[in-house]
Write a structure and sequence with these properties.
This protein has 249 residues and is mainly alpha-helical. The protein has helices at 2-20, 27-42, 46-67, 77-116, 119-125, 130-168, 173-181, 187-212, 218-248.
């Protein structure tokens, strides 16, 4: 029975995407909603991305410095390893897991509230493609802003590592900077940006799906929001593994 329910959910999700990913009827209205959603979902997420990236970058350098304290390893290894972790996984995958909680729950609860208060039904009675009107600006805005969030996360993560090196001198700041620059591969940056945009699409579309098909009252909206965060987290991890194997394998 659960397998049948899961297949039905996948079908509903596909149908919703088919209705969502169409050209908007009024492009000017879409552009206005796009900019509003970009500010609400993207710009308002900058502060949490910056704070978490700065402190995780600092903690990462401390942990790596403690665990590679070997005379056989050069001290700039701390900078190299922390850079690779930030570029390849933290600023894309881990940050998107965090954003699945903030942005995903926001989208699911907003659309879910509109569903249970019959605002979506009113749009459909007026002949409006409610999925396209409500969901497309959110998906496109969040996906478009993901590169900005990722670049900020990368930058602040490395700055956090530099600050802790200045404070503790383990390793010295100039050694850390040399490690950050050594053996740099710019492909890792583009890999992280593309991966995060895929995750951004998953977060926004799955959260919108749970909100769009919410039924009942306020408690059901809360459940839809929670379910969206859980499913998003699982999908991000699965897609991360598959995408990494395809691109880096």
């Amino acid at each position: 029975m659960k397998i049948i329910d899961s297949l039905e959910s996948v079908g509903q999700y596909a149908v919703l995407l088919k209705s969502t990913l169409t050209l908007p009827d009024r492009f000017r209205e879409f552009l206005k909603d796009f900019l509003k959603e970009m500010y609400k979902l993207g710009v308002n997420s900058l502060w949490i991305v910056m704070i978490i990236s700065f402190f995780i970058g600092a903690v990462m350098v401390v942990q790596i410095a403690l665990n590679v304290a070997s005379p056989l390893l050069p001290r700039f290894t701390v900078g190299v390893v922390s850079r690779e972790i930030i570029l390849l996984e933290f600023s894309s995958t881990i940050m998107c897991l965090i954003l699945a909680g903030k942005v995903g729950s926001n989208i699911a609860s907003e659309i879910g509230t509109m569903r249970v208060t019959e605002q979506i039904d009113a749009l459909e009675i007026m002949g409006v493609n409610s999925a396209n009107y409500l969901i497309l600006p959110k998906i496109t805005a969040f996906v478009a802003f993901m590169p900005v969030l990722v670049v900020f996360s990368m930058f602040l993560g490395m700055i956090g590592g530099y600050v802790i090196c200045v404070i503790t001198n383990t390793p010295p700041p100039e050694t850390y900077i040399y490690g950050i620059q050594a053996f740099f591969n710019d492909f890792f940056v583009w890999y992280s940006i593309v991966k995060s945009m895929i995750f951004g699409f998953i977060i926004a579309s799955v959260a919108a799906y749970f909100g769009y098909y919410a039924k009942g009252g306020s408690l059901d909206v809360g459940k839809a929001s929670t379910d969206s965060v859980v499913i998003n987290s699982i999908l991000i991890l699965i897609v991360d593994l598959a995408f990494t194997q395809l691109v880096m394998g």
